[in-house]
Amino acid sequence: MDAATLILIAPCALLSGAALQILVARLFSARTKGILAFLTCLPAVAAVIGIAPLVRSGQGIDLKPLPWDGPLAFVLHVDALSVLFAFMGACIGGLVLLYSIGYMAHDKSATRFYSTMLVFIAGFITLVFSANLFIFYLCWEVVGLCSFSLVGFWYTNREAVNGARKVLLMTHIAGYGLLAAILVIYHRAGTALWTDPAVAHSMTSGVFALMLIALVAKSVQVPLHTWIPEAMAAPTPVSALLHAACYVKAGVYLAARMHSFGVWPAAWGESLMWVGTVTMAVGVMYAMVQTDLKRMLAYSTVSQIGYMMMGLGIGTPLAITAGLLHCLNHGFFKGGLFLTAGSVQHASGTRDMNKLGGLAGKMPQTTLSWLIGVGSMMGIPLMSGFASKWMLYAAALQAGWAVPAMVAWAASLGTVFMGVKATSAVFLGPTTENTKDAHESPPSMVWGMGLLAAGSVVLGVAPQLAVNYFLNPILAALGMGAGVHVTWLGLSADAGSFSSTGGLVLALVSVVLGGAIYAIAYAARPAAATVVGGAMMAGAGGSSSAGWGGGGIFTGGEPLSDQGRLTAGDFSEIFQEHWRSFFRWSNVDRAYLGVWTGIQAVSRWLGIASDWMERDAVILLLVFVSAVFGLVRWVLPGTAFTGLPVVTPLEQVPPMLVWSIVVAAMALAVVSLVSSPRKGLFLWQSMLAVGGITVLGLTLSAPWARLTCLELGAALSLLPVVRAARSQAAKFTYMTVVVISVGSMVASRLFINFGQLDSARAFLLTGIAVKLAAIPLCFWLLALADEVPALALGLIIAVVDMAAFGEFLLGTQEIPGLLTPLPLVICAAILTSLLAALLMLTQRSLKRLLVLSTVEDVGFLLLGASSASVIGVQGAIIAASTHALAKALLFISLAAPEAAGEFNSEPIALATRYPVSAFGFLFAMLAMLGVPPMLGFAGRWRLYTSALAIGHVPFALFILSSIFALIAYALALARNWWGPPREDAPPASATREPFALKAAIVVLVVLLVAAGVWPNALQMLRGVRP
């Protein structure tokens, strides 16, 4: 089998398995689905192992490029570094799936779980195989979205909802740093292939800093590490995959991959090294005070990833080898530890170490797996963690970094303390109320964690297997020499050697001596005192003491708890008491909360101004329209473009936009027929009329015929508003908007015919600004939000407005200088997007949120239209098409809850009663935000590139707008769709999602995802050729 086939087998087998899970959703049990998921992972494991010998020489394998998205090609490049991380993803992921067979055997949502897990692993493998940085970013976000979905898997659990929200916000916001870096590289080098030497020449300190932000968040480094302990409400297999195999390792891979770009300046390596050094110290300090078993392991992950970053930052061959070896070791021992923690929770029903104990006799196989894993994490000789930690200490000292070496050593001592505390609390001592009936886990769970433990033993006894077969080829690929030499039962490198066997003997002697001292002291303790009648009486030993009681262990102070041993809580309280200042000042979430409070204050002040405008919407609309017209006509007359090229003229509205509007109109019409029994027929007829006439207008090339149909469609959109709006004010407001916009567009066409282009320009810009609700003319749309049914709003926003934007695109090329002076137009676009996004942050009404999201997106559309560049206009066309489909999907997702009266009060936990609508809302939200692999990404990256060509400040402000919109959507998802239902909420069986509504949602989601995964399929529909 050739290399190209092996490379494709790995992700394709996993994706096929995900599709199979969906196909057999109603046929098999959860256990059978787990077996299928595990079996479909095996070909990926075999393929990765088969690739490994092909890259041992240090050479890479290139897959023939395939067209993907316009100027970007789908290119894969696999070298030894790719294989190492793919091996972790496939092998550890496969063992996690094996464990899941027993763990998820009775879960009703097994299909969703296994399909997402398989996509998760496939996304990670494709990420490490990718040579195109845009494909890399797409997979980066696919992995992130899978993590978000799996952390929130039990979305009726408030802890899971909050954790998922934090995962999405912290990692995706930081991910904009990676996207910005890629766009800067593409803008400078003209290519996105990291294998191209031009990319290395485009790497500057600024680009490195942007990538560093992204990888710090992904790999849970300080100060962007606080999301990972909040993600522990996820199913245990998810936690293992996050920590051990895929998620946090994506950041480590990015740090390692940047070494392929060439020799780093000293400042880059030192920055990464100190980030890792600080992180390992902070992580272990927080881990030592945890009483929740999984939170303790989460913070230990923070610390352990710090070791990897320290090695990659030092950057010598020995340090890189140590960092990557520890990455592999961590995959096995931390994966095993999380699975054993899940096994403990599965048997006892709790993760609280204060409520655990005595499990060694109840769960011997789980205990053995834990001891191997925790021994490896502590760095006991002949366990895997020892080899990589020793090499890292040696590399740091060899490079002259004594302080980081000492910090790493101290962090290891803290890890020992933490591991001993957890082992004692969970597995030793007497059983508790929670553990008295515990029993060993099912065989699949035992095998899953047992094989991971075996991997730790193998890599501890024979670390040269990893060094010789994985790590030395990586050094060769990076041009760093022959590599590191490791021997059986010992280590040797340029920095010296160490006998692992001798170290193990010393460790065992220490344990035996410590145990003997403890046993002698425990046997010689005074007899327990008993309280009788309020007086302390001596026990059998005949003595009494105020310092002893309840069989406590002597500490030189007061007696211990009634368990007769130090509990996890005792350790935590002692440690927290002495390090209180450290924990207070190192809590970075306090700083984030302060920033968030300030942003919310700005949003509330903007909301007050917006509310005032809504109250006098018609009067202010007339005032602002007059001001905009006067400004454009007499103060800022247009001039022909001089510095920006005009793209190939559009003879008609691009087919892609036309078809998107057709699909949106059809979906809205179908859903309107079934969503409201009383008004459905009228809404259906109105929507068919509006959609049909609008689409007819878009297909016409004659200007007057096109304009007549489009404005007639806009006028007919009054019908559903007048029929269904709850207030006369809303009806009158929209009627005013229609009259102004129709009159302006007709006047503009008349003045074009008369050759008076300045007046035509003024009328066209005024009409479009009103119709698209650009700042400051957006408040009329807010005035309609809570007064008009969701489907009628969808018709206005997805069909009428996007058709108007298509007409506007033609106008930009028909009227010279339409969008000049350019700086003012760009400022208007930025303000429209940024202010709307800020307003979104404090909205609690879903419909008002979606209305403001429309305004935010209009800013991007204006940016693309005003760029006068091929990539900008293409971006605007794709963004408008996405807007039509995604906005229709968003409002359709609100139709069923609205029909049931859910919006009469603030809706919560809608997903429990309207699961398909929640599914549609989530995907439409991602499409609007331009998150890959949704269609919106193909438009957004082009628009960001256009902003970057204009300047760094516009580029940064549009990114900031996207961040605010992301926060607002994430808050709405967690507040309104997920979470536990109210006690008075109707049962899921009493709610209604008609089949036509479900079908419309699924069709729209499939279109948005399919077009985003392979956007080149839409190349011929864009209407603009590069």
Automatic annotation (TrEMBL):
<feature type="transmembrane region" description="Helical">
    <location>
        <begin position="368"/>
        <end position="387"/>
    </location>
</feature>
<keyword id="KW-1133">Transmembrane helix</keyword>
<dbReference type="GO" id="GO:0012505">
    <property type="term" value="C:endomembrane system"/>
</dbReference>
<feature type="domain" description="NADH:quinone oxidoreductase/Mrp antiporter transmembrane">
    <location>
        <begin position="130"/>
        <end position="408"/>
    </location>
</feature>
<feature type="transmembrane region" description="Helical">
    <location>
        <begin position="399"/>
        <end position="420"/>
    </location>
</feature>
<dbReference type="InterPro" id="IPR001516">
    <property type="entry name" value="Proton_antipo_N"/>
</dbReference>
<feature type="transmembrane region" description="Helical">
    <location>
        <begin position="444"/>
        <end position="462"/>
    </location>
</feature>
<dbReference type="Pfam" id="PF00662">
    <property type="entry name" value="Proton_antipo_N"/>
</dbReference>
<feature type="transmembrane region" description="Helical">
    <location>
        <begin position="995"/>
        <end position="1014"/>
    </location>
</feature>
<feature type="domain" description="NADH-Ubiquinone oxidoreductase (complex I) chain 5 N-terminal">
    <location>
        <begin position="73"/>
        <end position="114"/>
    </location>
</feature>
<feature type="transmembrane region" description="Helical">
    <location>
        <begin position="271"/>
        <end position="289"/>
    </location>
</feature>
<feature type="transmembrane region" description="Helical">
    <location>
        <begin position="310"/>
        <end position="333"/>
    </location>
</feature>
<feature type="transmembrane region" description="Helical">
    <location>
        <begin position="6"/>
        <end position="28"/>
    </location>
</feature>
<dbReference type="InterPro" id="IPR001750">
    <property type="entry name" value="ND/Mrp_TM"/>
</dbReference>
<feature type="transmembrane region" description="Helical">
    <location>
        <begin position="503"/>
        <end position="524"/>
    </location>
</feature>
<feature type="transmembrane region" description="Helical">
    <location>
        <begin position="167"/>
        <end position="186"/>
    </location>
</feature>
<feature type="transmembrane region" description="Helical">
    <location>
        <begin position="955"/>
        <end position="974"/>
    </location>
</feature>
<feature type="transmembrane region" description="Helical">
    <location>
        <begin position="35"/>
        <end position="54"/>
    </location>
</feature>
<feature type="transmembrane region" description="Helical">
    <location>
        <begin position="656"/>
        <end position="674"/>
    </location>
</feature>
<dbReference type="InterPro" id="IPR050616">
    <property type="entry name" value="CPA3_Na-H_Antiporter_A"/>
</dbReference>
<feature type="transmembrane region" description="Helical">
    <location>
        <begin position="822"/>
        <end position="842"/>
    </location>
</feature>
<feature type="transmembrane region" description="Helical">
    <location>
        <begin position="849"/>
        <end position="871"/>
    </location>
</feature>
<keyword id="KW-0472">Membrane</keyword>
<feature type="transmembrane region" description="Helical">
    <location>
        <begin position="916"/>
        <end position="935"/>
    </location>
</feature>
<keyword id="KW-0812">Transmembrane</keyword>
<feature type="transmembrane region" description="Helical">
    <location>
        <begin position="135"/>
        <end position="155"/>
    </location>
</feature>
<feature type="transmembrane region" description="Helical">
    <location>
        <begin position="732"/>
        <end position="752"/>
    </location>
</feature>
<feature type="transmembrane region" description="Helical">
    <location>
        <begin position="469"/>
        <end position="491"/>
    </location>
</feature>
<feature type="transmembrane region" description="Helical">
    <location>
        <begin position="74"/>
        <end position="99"/>
    </location>
</feature>
<feature type="transmembrane region" description="Helical">
    <location>
        <begin position="198"/>
        <end position="217"/>
    </location>
</feature>
<feature type="transmembrane region" description="Helical">
    <location>
        <begin position="111"/>
        <end position="129"/>
    </location>
</feature>
<feature type="transmembrane region" description="Helical">
    <location>
        <begin position="617"/>
        <end position="636"/>
    </location>
</feature>
<feature type="domain" description="NADH:quinone oxidoreductase/Mrp antiporter transmembrane">
    <location>
        <begin position="757"/>
        <end position="963"/>
    </location>
</feature>
<dbReference type="GO" id="GO:0016020">
    <property type="term" value="C:membrane"/>
</dbReference>
<feature type="transmembrane region" description="Helical">
    <location>
        <begin position="681"/>
        <end position="698"/>
    </location>
</feature>
<protein>
    <submittedName>
        <fullName>Carbon monoxide-induced hydrogenase, membrane anchor subunit</fullName>
    </submittedName>
</protein>
<feature type="transmembrane region" description="Helical">
    <location>
        <begin position="764"/>
        <end position="783"/>
    </location>
</feature>
<feature type="transmembrane region" description="Helical">
    <location>
        <begin position="238"/>
        <end position="256"/>
    </location>
</feature>
<dbReference type="Pfam" id="PF00361">
    <property type="entry name" value="Proton_antipo_M"/>
</dbReference>
<feature type="transmembrane region" description="Helical">
    <location>
        <begin position="790"/>
        <end position="810"/>
    </location>
</feature>
